[in-house]
Automatic annotation (TrEMBL):
Its main location: membrane. It holds the Pfam family FtsX. The lineage of its organism: Bacteria, Bacillati, Actinomycetota, Actinomycetes, Micrococcales. The keyword Cell membrane applies. This is ABC3 transporter permease C-terminal domain-containing protein. Keywords: Cell membrane, Membrane, Transmembrane, Transmembrane helix. It comes from the Bacteria. It is a multi-pass membrane protein. InterPro entries: ABC3_permease_C. It comes from Microbacterium helvum.
């Protein structure tokens, strides 16, 4: 009996007409292949257009206070890092599209088996077959490419970037079209040839799986060593290789579970669940590609959600640790005065501000960073950087450490007045002295105020001297930390003893201060009073400060909690001693792994125990909205502002996050197109079952429900297994990939996070699409089963 799937043609019909009619007989599958190419081309064009736009608008407007040349350098660094990472998206889309196109080509070859045999019988050679298969693939790819470019141009225009932006990556679209043409032609030819045995196919599949797993091991091993300094094949291949391996593992689990479940399911009475379970187990090769594509898409969705959330957390946390606060301005070589801090705190959008010290220190032969911030600012200004900074550990105390108890001046205080008695020693006359006060405003920022008064008379005996200093601009209430004593330059070294008679806060209460200091042996400066519990003037025997030390620094020094270390201030030769009160992973305000933190108040007290001067703050830190950076910079002399947000370079690389979501949306469409074609082909291959089941008394509605349950279980299993594979892939490579493509990520930033809302939207969208395919398939079964008869396919 003649095959009705081959259209009748005259005996003299040319080979071209036969081939044309053979192609037109499978228009649906060929259209699905063209749609797959269109989706792939549109996805690649939109992804690359988005990344290109991110580079073009970066640094516009430039960050406040940053030189345009420096911004240009940052943009160039970001563009280079983006160029090294963007191929990964194209490779993944090409892999998914190639898999879908290859499967569709195999379905086309299987569906036209009789037509192919007829053409061969008419003398069609192998060379002619290759030529026609390549030509057919080229036509499919060309049609898909044209549609894809039109879609990309339209989507780009709707997004406001202009149609030309979507067409700009046309060379990539052309390269992808050529690749998919080759894949389609090879898969079609292999399907028509049918020369490989089942054993050979299984061996080839096992080899491919083995190579894929070995490649995954190589990627996981090498990816942490990659850096964003140009194209890196490991970075480009990592997502595609590891996601493919995850999808293959998911497919293997699906096949094993399907086969294992078929036997106990078949022992149950009735058709369900035995019949659908046996059908799935028997047709795993057909279901395999659908399961693979769906699992790969879901895994990609999880990976994208994890990459986006992890990138945001790692870049933000790294920037926050480096800045120390939401906003920061470094003033070196100038100092952070209380007036500047108050002016910065008054900027709209700023909640609190304080002065901070970040300076280099030497510990033995090691170079480290010392950070000092007022302890009150740990809860109001200093960022926790997503949990990387522990304020409680930074404020930890240690036994025997420096104590500091400044005296409150009161809210209404306007000045400090001090009366002292000066006595000459060794028969010398009393001489004038200079007094100054070290004050702390409400933010903890220090200020040194000179106290002035009428010159005291010189002569024998005790001489009384009263001096007063107005409080500087700053934030009330103020506290008194120390009174310092000095003498004018004179040819003869001073020989005097000075003691405090009384002290008061003008506009406030009297201050109970007691202090005595002597200026002898060419000493011209001394600490008259210090709020340290009586340890003033202890010199080198002064107690150490309690410090929080990074674990890296402690490990390099081989010390632990309770141990002491000595440090030297870089450039000034001053020394200090610290007791390790706590070990921390990070010190805010520095990217150095070798660092220590000391509260500002105790550090100042320790400095005054060893001398008569302090190392003043050199930067202003503030808590508030990073959008206030312009005003914050203007208040501090139009200086650059470091924020707890990714900079220009990192922001450019951040365009990969929406780029991955665009690629994921395209992958979902690719999977749905391929799944629909596979389900429709499967329905054509199983039409005989419908007549047999109808003859056995199974109603059309019941057959439709069984088919729907069968497909729902297959797709549901693919979604679940793909989700598990995505989580595994994310844990394996996402943190390393973020570090590899983004400059400036600190080593301590890590951990995998997932952005659940977009992931939920992506998975729900895919599930809805699969549900629609299941519904269409069930409706088709219901219609066909109502009229199907036994032997219908053989007539």
């Amino acid at each position: 009996m003649p095959d009705r799937r081959v259209p009748s043609a005259p005996a003299a019909a040319s080979a071209a007409r036969l081939l044309l009619r053979r192609s037109s007989a499978r228009t649906g599958l060929l259209a699905s292949a063209a749609a797959t190419v269109a989706v792939a081309v549109a996805t690649v064009c939109l992804v690359l257009a988005w990344l290109s736009r991110a580079v073009s608008v970066a640094g516009d407007p430039p960050p406040p206070g940053v030189d345009p040349d420096e911004v240009a350098d940052q943009v160039a660094a970001g563009a280079a890092a983006l160029a090294s990472a963007s191929p990964a998206l194209v490779v993944l889309v090409a892999l998914l599209a190639g898999t879908a196109v290859a499967q569709l080509a195999r379905l086309v070859a299987a569906a036209r088996e009789h037509e192919t045999a007829t053409v061969r019988a008419r003398g069609f050679s192998r060379a002619q077959a290759w030529t026609t298969d390549v030509a057919e693939g080229a036509v499919v790819a060309l049609a898909g490419t044209v549609v894809g470019l039109v879609v990309a141009a339209g989507a780009s225009a709707v997004a406001g970037a202009g149609a030309l932006a979507g067409l700009a990556p046309w060379p990539w679209a052309l390269a992808l079209a050529v690749l998919l043409t080759v894949v389609f032609a090879v898969a079609l030819r292999r399907g028509e040839g049918r020369r490989s045995s089942a054993r050979t196919t299984r061996a080839t599949t096992a080899a491919v799986v083995g190579v894929l797993l070995l490649a995954t091991g190589l990627v996981v091993w090498q990816l942490p060593l990659s850096r964003s300094e140009g194209f890196d094949p490991i970075v480009a291949a990592a997502p595609a290789v590891v996601l493919s391996a995850g999808a293959v593992v998911a497919l293997a689990v699906f096949g094993a579970v399907a086969v294992a479940w078929a036997r106990p399911a078949a022992s149950a009475p009735g058709l369900e669940p035995g019949y659908p379970a046996r059908q799935v187990a028997r047709r795993i090769p057909i279901f395999a590609v659908a399961v693979l594509l769906v699992a790969l898409t879901v895994a990609q969705s999880v990976f994208t959600a994890a990459y986006g959330a992890t990138w945001t957390a790692m870049t933000t946390d790294s920037a926050a640790v480096r800045a120390g606060a939401d906003l920061r301005v470094d003033l070196t070589p100038q100092t952070a005065t209380t007036a500047l801090v108050a002016e910065a705190a008054a900027v709209p959008g700023i909640d609190a501000a304080t002065g901070a010290l970040v300076t280099g220190v030497e510990i033995g032969e090691l170079d480290a960073q010392l950070v000092a911030v007022p302890e009150t600012a740990l809860d109001t200004v200093v960022t926790t950087a997503g949990g990387l900074v522990d304020p409680d550990a930074l404020a930890a105390d240690a036994d025997g450490a420096v104590a500091s108890e400044p005296v409150e001046l009161g809210d209404a205080a306007t000045a400090v007045r001090v009366t002292v008695e000066i006595a000459g020693q060794n028969g010398t006359n009393a001489i004038p002295v200079l007094l100054s006060a070290v004050l702390l405003d409400a933010t903890g920022t220090p200020a040194v105020v000179t106290l002035t008064g009428e010159a005291p008379p010189t002569g024998q005996g005790l001489v009384s001297y009263t001096a007063q200093g107005e409080l500087p601009d700053g934030t009330a209430p103020w506290r008194l930390l120390a009174l310092l004593l000095g003498t004018p330059l004179t040819p003869v070294p001073p020989q005097v003893s000075v003691s405090i008679v009384s002290a008061e806060a003008v506009g406030g209460d009297a201050l109970e201060l007691e202090g005595t200091a002597s200026l002898t042996n060419q000493t011209r400066e001394a600490v008259l009073w210090l709020a340290d519990g009586g340890e003033a003037g202890a010199g080198e025997d002064a107690p150490p400060v309690a410090a929080a030390v990074t674990t890296a620094l402690a490990a390099r020094l081989g010390i632990g909690l309770g141990d002491q270390l000595e440090f030297r201030y870089e450039g000034v030769g001053r020394r200090g001693t610290a007791t390790i009160a706590s070990l921390v992973d990070a010190v805010p305000g520095t990217a150095a792994t070798l660092a220590l933190f000391v509260p500002m108040q105790t550090l100042l007290t320790s400095q005054l125990q060893r001398g008569t001067s302090i190392v003043v703050p050199d930067s202003v830190w503030a808590a508030g909205d990073t959008a206030s950076a312009d005003g914050f910079s203007a208040a501090l002399g139009d200086r650059p502002v470091a924020t707890a947000a990714p900079g220009v370079t990192a922001s450019i690389v951040g365009a990969l996050v929406p780029g991955w979501w665009i690629a994921t949306a395209g992958s979902a469409l690719l999977s749905l197109v391929a799944a629909l074609a596979i389900v429709q082909t499967l329905a054509l291959a199983r039409r005989r079952e419908l007549g047999v089941l109808r003859a056995a008394g199974v109603t059309a509605g019941r057959q439709a429900r069984m088919r729907a349950a069968e497909l729902a279980v297959v797709f549901g299993a693919a979604v679940v297994l793909g989700g598990a594979a995505g989580v595994l892939v994310s844990v394996l490579i996402v943190p390393s990939l973020v570090r590899a493509v983004t400059p400036g990520i600190l080593p301590l930033a890590g951990g995998v996070e997932i952005s659940w809302p977009p992931l939920g939207i992506a998975v729900v969208g895919l599930v809805v699409g699969l549900a629609a395919i299941v519904g269409v398939a069930a409706a088709g079964v219901h219609r066909a089963a109502r009229t199907a008869t036994v032997g219908e396919e053989s007539r």
